[in-house]
Specification:
By secondary structure, this protein is an all-alpha fold. It has six helices and no strands.
Length: 198
Amino acid sequence: MSDYTTSVLNLDDPRVYRDLRKPVGALQPERLAAFQERYECFDDPFVPKFMYGSHYSSAGVVLHFLVRQEPFTSLAVALHDGRFDCPDRLFGSIEGAWQSCNQSMTDVKELIPELFYDPECLVNRNRLPLGTLQTGVEVGDVALPPGRKGTPTSSSACTAWPSRASTCRRPCTTGWTSSSGAGRRGTRPSRPTTCPTT
């Protein structure tokens, strides 16, 4: 999906779906151009050139999305020196996560498989003290996109909308190559995409 703001979606409209042929950092042409410019201008004698300053998937990304479930809760707390991350950086809404990975030059996180089949990862069942946002709202369950009925546990946040759409039933015949190598046949990407230290 690429539309997390519309209450009623036309599931046969290909524009509501994310282009899986590209990594998330390449979905917006303007942002991709900025990443490419950073790559071309980067000059460091010790660090090779790269496009994205963070990785599309890492242990930190998994902990970001699964912070509400053990053992990921304990691992996330350990990662942040014995406390939860800043509330405004926690995974708080599907829409917010999508906006961040499409607008921020520091966020190229891909969704993890659990978001497609395990709605429990969206619920703060253990009443974890995740803190309060700068807006004064307490961080609890992950906010679902508009138009979603019920609670996070009534269905997976990412799959209930498109389950019967003809667009989703078509096979994805080309995989994106620039960050994962998916679909590659013995060739390397033309340029390194992620910082070697991430």
